Amino acid sequence: MVEEVVKVAESYLKDVIIGLVILLIGFILGILVKKIIYKVLKEFELNKIMSKVGITSNVEKGISWIVSLLVYLVAIVLFLNQLRIASVVLYLVVGAILMLIILTFVVGLKDVIPNIVAWVFIQRKGTIKEGRRVEVREIAGVVENVGYLETEIKTDRGDILYVPNALFMKSKFSLKKEK
């Protein structure tokens, strides 16, 4: 009986050690993948490309961070499988985390989508063009550029203001041709 207990303990200890090695390798791979992806995206100058579209956050860092989290998640799942404790609860936790990430992304788009819809409206109507004088709320000036998310307006004092395109849909505005 004692021999059986010792064998079970040895077997479980072996599984724990293999699991810890898997976990350690997974975390090391996560760190390496994060650095490699960040450098690759930096080479492609993804942040500069995204800033032209109007996204000013550090996309390179964000994507590399998300990929490293996925590697960590895989390592944790493999670790729990090695310990034979991966169950429906684990999959529910993973599902909840993925749902949280998706909801965060959707909430982040709540400001982007109205601005893109307004940009389409502006392009179809053709009323707001570069060189035209615009007055919307307290903002008055000449349109410099109409982007996907915002319109650049140069004020009479020479300041450049970035007005969200959705503001043109929500507010009354007036147009005058620049002389």
How does this structure look, described?
It is a single chain. The protein is an alpha+beta fold and 179 residues long. It has 2 domains: 2-108, no CATH class; 114-176, Roll (SH3 type barrels), CATH 2.30.30. Helix content is 64%, strand content 15%. The chain is built from 6 helices and 5 strands, in the order αααααββββαβ. The chain has helices spanning 2-43, 46-53, 59-82, 88-108, 112-125, 166-170, and strands at residues 133-136, 139-146, 150-155, 160-164, 173-176. The chain has a 5-stranded antiparallel β-sheet with strand order 4-3-2-1-5. α1 (2-43) packs antiparallel against α3 (59-82). The mean pLDDT is 86.
Summed up:
The chain is an alpha+beta fold and 179 residues long. It has helices at residues 2-43, 46-53, 59-82, 88-108, 112-125, 166-170, and strands at residues 133-136, 139-146, 150-155, 160-164, 173-176.
List the helices and strands and how they pair.
Elements: H1 2-43, H2 46-53, H3 59-82, H4 88-108, H5 112-125, E1 133-136, E2 139-146, E3 150-155, E4 160-164, H6 166-170, E5 173-176
Antiparallel strand pairs: 1-2, 1-5, 2-3, 3-4
- N- to C-terminal separation? 99 Å
**β content, as a range?**
15-25%
Which parts are unreliable, with pLDDT below 50 for 5 consecutive residues or more?
Answer: none
Please work out how many helical segments DSSP would assign: 6
- Into which percent range does the helicity of residues fall? 55-70%
Q: Strand tally, please?
A: 5
Largest beta-sheet characterization: 5 strands, antiparallel
Radius of gyration computed on alpha carbons: 27 Å
Number of domains: 2
Strands of the biggest beta sheet: in what spatial order?
Answer: 4-3-2-1-5
Structural class: alpha+beta
Rounded mean pLDDT score: 86
N-to-C order of helices and strands: HHHHHEEEEHE
Q: Label the overall shape.
A: elongated
